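User: Reviewer 2 asked us to show a designed sequence for the structure in our supplementary figure. I'm pasting the structure tokens here. Could you produce the per-position amino acids so we can include them in the response letter?
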């Protein structure tokens, strides 16, 4: 049986990791093109404005993953009709939420950028970027939310191909809008929106080819299912958004204690670390359909095996990323058009983040595992705990250590969270329902 579980693990996890990696690179492409064409100022503008886009993407991921969780559990319980109802309700919620994001955020977009700390030319570049991003909210949100659903209908390869297709289109469109037509940050935003539209094409084809799904899916909202989806969306929403909240907090600290060079340095750090974190999240979210189905079927042996394999694979992934990226620390900043001052800061500061990713390898899988089995309280403790701890450390560490204190606050918060995750996982393993696992 273990050989079967292992085969299932890799079939789900590897395409998911590739999809998540391309999600990270997707964002980086904008940074590279804008950094090379507009310099540190444009790079800083996108980095400061990005959390608003990340908020939209997090809503899509939260709704999509919540629907996916219940689809998996219902499928494990052999309730296929209920699973299809959840599927239809989730897609409807994605589209409606995307439209609402545009209607709500558009009137306050300038205020949001001011709150995030932009001013002068950085504000102008950031607003040009955000104007286009907000108009395409429904495409961002739907593209992010539909892929977890597809993975739960054995569509891991389609989800991966969708992201690769969108990523490839984004590179060409960034070159066209930013380099060829000189549209700057607005051009990068146009490229991102259009690439998201194109990435939806394989997803639509996937559903149309599955006649059983396409004919029986129910899009009319059901109050009971909407409530279940909304409740389950809290953890994956927060998990997706938390890195961007960290970016906001750390951007503010960088502006306060270092200025534009430090903000540009952290922009590059956040891009690189984003890929590592997304790979780790890809492991947890990739194995989610299996965990949800086995949880619904009460197959504790499979759950126990997949949980342990996820932890080991996540740690190995974090170590391999360190071995690949560490020798490139003096080169990577220049890929983004960073100045020599920002590049020097990067080569030193990235050390703290490499160490933190070893802790994150356990934390991320724990969070994904908890929300896959509907243990949202444990997942939320780990997600919101990271934001709270980072904020607390940033109140005093930079005052004592300067810029080093900014970087250390991240690793220190992640170390404490690692201990918390160990405790929560151990406590959950003592649950009577799993003692025989």
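Assistant: Here is a per-position design you can include in the supplement:
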């Amino acid at each position: 049986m273990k050989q079967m579980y292992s085969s299932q693990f890799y079939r789900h996890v590897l395409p998911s990791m590739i999809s998540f990696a391309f999600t990270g690179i997707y964002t980086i492409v904008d940074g590279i093109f804008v950094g090379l064409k507009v310099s540190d100022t444009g790079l800083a503008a996108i980095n400061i404005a990005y959390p608003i886009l990340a908020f939209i993407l997090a809503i899509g991921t939260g709704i999509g993953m919540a629907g996916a969780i219940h689809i998996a559990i219902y499928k494990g319980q052999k309730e296929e009709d209920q699973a299809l109802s959840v599927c239809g309700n989730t897609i409807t919620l994605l589209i409606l939420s995307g439209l609402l994001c545009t209607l709500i955020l558009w009137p306050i977009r300038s205020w949001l950028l001011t709150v995030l700390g932009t001013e002068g030319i950085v504000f102008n570049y950031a607003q040009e970027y955000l104007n286009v991003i907000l108009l395409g909210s429904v495409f961002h949100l739907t593209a992010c939310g539909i892929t977890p659903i597809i993975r739960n209908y054995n569509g891991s390869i389609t989800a991966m191909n969708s992201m690769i297709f969108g990523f490839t289109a984004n590179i060409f469109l960034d070159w066209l809008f930013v380099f060829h037509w000189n549209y700057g940050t607005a051009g990068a935003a146009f490229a991102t929106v259009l690439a998201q539209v194109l990435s939806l094409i394989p997803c639509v084809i996937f559903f149309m080819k599955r006649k059983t799904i396409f004919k029986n899916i129910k899009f009319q909202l059901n109050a009971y299912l909407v409530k279940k989806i909304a409740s389950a969306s809290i953890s994956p929403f927060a998990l997706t958004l938390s890195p961007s909240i960290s970016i906001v907090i750390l951007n503010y600290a960088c502006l306060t204690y270092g200025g534009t060079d430090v903000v540009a340095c952290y922009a590059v750090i956040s891009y690189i670390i984003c890929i590592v974190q997304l790979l780790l999240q890809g492991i947890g979210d990739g194995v989610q359909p299996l965990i949800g189905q086995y949880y619904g079927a009460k197959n504790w042996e499979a759950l126990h095996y997949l949980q342990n394999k996820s932890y080991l694979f996540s740690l190995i992934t974090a170590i391999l990323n360190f071995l690949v990226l560490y020798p490139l620390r003096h080169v990577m900043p220049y890929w983004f058009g960073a100045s020599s001052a920002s590049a020097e800061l990067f080569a030193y500061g990235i050390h703290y983040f490499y160490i933190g990713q070893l802790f994150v390898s356990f934390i991320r899988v724990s969070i994904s595992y908890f929300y896959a089995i509907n243990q949202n309280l444990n997942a939320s403790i780990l997600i919101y705990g990271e934001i709270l701890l980072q904020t607390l450390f940033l109140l005093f560490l930079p005052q004592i250590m300067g810029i080093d204190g900014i970087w250390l606050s991240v690793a220190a918060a992640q170390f404490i969270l690692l201990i918390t995750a160990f405790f929560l996982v151990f406590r959950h393993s003592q649950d009577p329902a799993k003692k025989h696992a």
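For the response letter, you might also mention the following. The chain has a mean pLDDT of 84. The chain has one domain: 2-428.
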